[in-house]
Amino acid sequence: MIQRILTVGGYTLLSRVTGFVRDIILAAVLGAGPAADAFFVALRLPNHFRAIFAEGAFNAAFVPAYARIREQGGAHRAGLFADRIFTLLLASQVVLLGVALAFTPAVIDVLAPGFGADPSRFDLAVDLTRITFPYLLLITLVTLYGGILNALERFAAASAAPILLNVSMVAALLVAHYFPTPGHAAAWGVLISGVLQALLVAGDCWRAGALPTFRRLKLDADVSRFFRALGPATVGSAGVQLALFADTIIASFLPTGAVSALYYADRINQLPIGVIGIAAGTVVLPEMARRIAAGDEAGAAHAQNRAVEFTLLLGIPCIAAFFAVPDLIMKALFVRGAFTEADAVASGHTLAAYAFGLLPFVLIRSAVATFFARGDTATPVKAALAAAAVNIGFKVLLMGPLAQVGLALATSIGAWINLALVTWFAARAGHLRTDARLRQSMWKLAVAGIAMGLVLWLAYAPVAAFMSNSHGFRDLLTLTVVGTLGAVVYGGIVFALFGRDWLKAFRARRRS
After folding, report:
1. Domain finish residue from 403, 434, 465
2. CA 403 to CA 260: how far, in whole Å?
3. Final residue of a structural domain among 407, 434, 461
4. Is the pTM of this model over 0.85?
5. d(Cα 8, Cα 40) in Å, to the nearest integer?
6. CA dist., res. 491 & res. 253, Å (int)
7. Among residues 223, 271, 395, 443, which one has the fewest Cβ atoms lying within 10 Å of its Cβ?
8. d(CA 27, CA 311)
9. Range(s) of the domain holding residue 186
10. Domain shared by 109 and 211, yes or no
């Protein structure tokens, strides 16, 4: 299982690296002004719906259902189930696309009401949203194909698909002078990437002999059970996305640049979430679903414990870095072109607020897997909705004194509430089985993380002073040196606390 997590994480890391290149070019071309705000609102709308109906609710209901049906009923029955879901999914997305294109101005009024005071920014957001929204239909199909491949333990294509989004946007931005505005270039890059991603993942499904086709709709037992799981999952995903909608709505009333500061900070925050947290959750969900379907409860618990352990091993260094040197990270990665040092400082403060919730962000996918693998999508919904309510409440309280930093901090508070409730529900249901090895690993990794954070914080000023004559490369070189020192300290302490036997066992699990 660890090898599969590394496969997903590796492709996700490549996706994030190309995403950083994309964001660097976005920052240089768009900056953090009105055009950038309009594009990010246009990008958020299909992303919100994708997270609700596709990657969020759909994956939670479909992947364990497909794995269970294939384990218990064979490949033919699983294929029939996938065909019927494909037909329903495509039809619903076509209807949603038609409605969204017809009522785009009204949607922007709801999503970013503060844009109404700036007609040029509002009109640009409407134009860009009409270009980006068809991306939702394409990426929904990618999600279906990816869910099938994950259940078949084929993780590479679905994990690599997001790389095409970054490559496509970069290519479009490099020829932005052929478009009405750079925002239009970025929006068309998003749409083209959807076509490329769908072709990539559909091709892998076809090679696996599992590409779904149109099928006469029939509400059989498997489809009915899927919809019983999909309903609560959709409500839970909608609650989470409602909190993100609140970010966009509130930020549109804040000074120009707040939406962009949230975006760039969130892009950095999403690196460990995607590479570590989502990768572990993607692999452990079908693994647990298969083991539970086969009656192997102990094996399912072992898989979850190892996924959490691996997530902590790689996630804690990111938490330490985001707390200790957030401004340096933003300056090194983004200060160039239209993106200024003041923009980097604002985004750095926002990143530090996100760091407060990074631990629950990376753990939540592995934590909820114990429910989703059993077909229980209702219980995580209770936690998600309660967390969303707390999140939105804190956004309203903190937006005045802390601006976009308050929005990020509220998101982190909501993440802690979500993880705490999921853990409590799992313990109450008897699904939580933390072994002694995981409990020991948690405190050892915490010690290593605290030490790393202190080294980063203490080393920042002297290294920056030493690099003061490096001019344009000063921040990047400082981050490289400081980051290397922190990594050496963290790795050394992990080796000292865990010992050679633990590392040998880890390598053995990787080979297996």
Report:
1. 434
2. 13
3. 434
4. no
5. 27
6. 44
7. 443
8. 30
9. 2-434
10. yes
